[in-house]
Write a structure and sequence with these properties.
six-stranded mixed sheet, 24 helices, 61% helix, 7% strand, elongated
């Protein structure tokens, strides 16, 4: 064994003694051997400087020349041998870990430790320091090179050190990330294959390290969360256009959900884990379930489609429950409850709160299942026809809930010091959710409410927020994003008001410009709205031209819509159209 001695002096003499009497001896008695013979047999010591301004100071190796111990005091005579190539704070941290103390205040001024075990902990601490230094530089490859020194990892001293494995797993996780457009980055298939092979190696290594962390400490929610995130990241990569396809999205999503659930059993207030779980349930899995193409499977029949749709709705509802849970936890915490730590109210967690509000607005809007059919206008009817009063009330209720969430999202995402009275001004703040998208979502909800209720206040609000969305700029990294999706909705509003020429004016020139070099580049949904507009003013030639072009656009849904429009144009119901104009 060796003594570890802590001093608040800036320096000590080359030879001298330390004495702990009646004021300090009781505090160190439990940290030295009970047997007097064992105490006086200790011949070496490490001394570290405990003051903050001395934390970088080199510790000293001491030779113990004489030891006196009684029931009320300990006196040690020493001689300085040499400075140790280390730092005082590392000795202190290793001692904290040795005795499993949370604070340096709890550490004794003198203690006896097993030299081999202490040096092992100290060596791990040095390793952590090296990892942290490289981590600050985002040098993940260098961290992996440190790990390579311990291969095979299962036979190394690190295999039983959860904290070290966890740190290394963060670097291997970074090295496993594959978010590139692979077809663009690697036109050569062999290079692409080699790149994916490397990414797979690091992904599997990350899983191995994180599974081992859980084996060593199965009550640590962070370890489950880390493993869940590995699978969550894989799902996002498999779902990225032109991304990797060397995995099973559903299997990885189920694994992610499994470990998120285990995380939340241990700590139900982990906002980031709740958010990611909600995204899987409400966004990724429902879309994959509805639109994936199973190998060797023909077009699904109606029963299969109904089952897929039902499963997707169930998942969306489960996701909504998680988003609501997140919102409640955050708001409860923000209002001063102790249910989660104060850190959960920082900007980091606020981001997930605001995004959750935005998703809740979108999901409620989606569940309202608004069947907005522009064909109805050709026959002089509203684009939404609901004959059942209960169903109508249900949809209006869902839209009002969506409206309340987007309003709260806009208000919470406003961070400017200037006080604004109106929601339309608050939406201008580009923060955690893009201002353009907030304004657009608000406008769409108001559009549907106007169509269902015919209340002018909803029409006016929709107009205001569409125009605001058009005024706002996308951030620099999305500067090439167009706003056709907004213009199409503004055109639709004009159709609802019977302003057919205005709708055409909004879309026609853009349609001509975009399709001048290549047909069908103008989005199908906007082309359909423009074709309907031409039909409503009686310009059959232009309507037929668009319908003919887009009846072979490759989008099955819109090919059907344009074919239906072509049939209508061959057998026009002019009186009904005229009646629609007059109304």
């Amino acid at each position: 064994m060796i003594f570890i001695i802590s001093t608040s002096f800036d320096s000590i003499r080359e030879e001298g003694s330390f004495f702990w009497g009646e004021n300090y001896f009781p505090a160190i008695r439990d940290y030295i051997p009970l047997n007097t013979t064992d105490v006086i047999s200790i011949k070496d010591a490490i001394l570290f400087f405990n003051k903050t301004n001395n934390k970088e100071k080199a510790p000293l190796k001491l030779k113990i020349t004489q030891t006196h111990i009684t029931r009320v005091y300990l006196k040690i005579h020493y001689k300085v041998i040499e400075e140790i190539d280390n730092k005082s704070y590392r000795i202190r941290n290793a001692l904290k870990q040795y005795f499993n103390k949370k604070s340096v205040i709890e550490l004794p001024f003198c203690c006896a430790v097993d030299e081999e075990r202490f040096n092992s902990i100290l060596k791990s601490g040095e390793l952590f320091f090296d990892i942290n230094s490289l981590q600050e530089k985002n040098d993940w490859s260098a961290i992996y090179k440190l790990l390579e020194k311990y291969q095979p990892i299962e036979q190394s001293v690190l295999w039983n050190n959860a904290e070290a494995l966890n740190k290394f797993s963060f670097a291997t996780a970074k090295l496993s990330e594959c978010t590139e457009n692979l077809k663009k980055k690697f036109p050569d298939k062999e290079k692409r294959k080699e790149f994916l092979k490397q990414k797979k190696f690091f992904r599997e290594l990350t899983i191995k390290l994180r599974e081992r962390c859980i084996q060593l400490s199965n009550d640590n929610p962070a370890f489950y969360s880390n493993l869940a995130y590995t699978y969550y990241q894989s799902v996002n990569e498999l779902n990225t256009p032109n991304g990797r396809r060397d995995g099973n999205l559903v299997r990885d999503a189920e694994k992610a959900l499994e470990y998120f659930d285990k995380t939340l059993i241990l700590d139900s207030s982990r906002i980031t884990d709740i958010y990611r779980k909600a995204i899987l349930l409400s966004e990724i899995l429902p879309s994959y379930n509805l639109y994936r193409s199973d190998i060797n499977q023909t077009t699904p029949d109606n029963n299969q489609l109904k089952e897929k749709y039902s499963n997707s709705i169930e998942m969306i509802n489960r996701g909504i429950e998680e988003f609501i849970k997140l919102v409640k936890i955050y708001e409860h915490s923000f209002n001063g409850s102790d249910s989660v730590s104060k850190a959960d109210t920082t900007e980091h967690y606020k981001k997930y709160y605001i995004k959750a509000l935005y998703h809740l607005a979108q999901k409620r809007l989606k569940l309202a299942k608004i069947d907005f059919n522009l064909f109805n206008i050709l026959y002089g009817y509203k684009p939404i026809i609901i004959n059942d009063p209960n169903e109508l009330d249900h949809k209006i209720s869902l839209l009002n809930i969506a409206n309340s969430y987007i309003d709260k999202c806009i208000q919470s995402d406003y961070t400017k010091k200037k006080e604004e009275k109106f929601l339309i001004d608050l939406v201008e703040c580009d923060n955690f959710v893009l201002a353009v998208y907030k304004a657009y979502t608000k406008a769409v909800i108001e559009t549907y409410l106007f169509t269902l209720t015919e209340k002018v206040k909803h029409l006016n609000t929709a107009k205001e927020f569409y125009h605001k969305a058009l005024e706002l700029n996308f951030p620099q990294h999305q500067k090439n994003q167009n706003k056709i999706f907004i213009l199409e909705k503004v055109a639709t509003l004009n159709l609802l008001e019977g302003k057919y020429d205005a709708a055409i004016k909004i879309l026609e020139q853009l349609y001509i410009k975009i399709n001048s070099n290549k047909p069908c580049r103008f989005p199908e949904y906007a082309a359909f709205t423009l074709a309907i507009s031409f039909t409503l003013i009686g310009d059959k030639r232009k309507a037929e031209q668009i319908a003919e072009e887009y009846s072979k656009c490759g989008n099955k849904i819109f090919e059907h819509k344009f074919s239906k429009l072509k049939d209508f144009l061959k057998n026009p119901v002019s009186k009904k159209i005229e009646s629609s104009k007059n109304n």
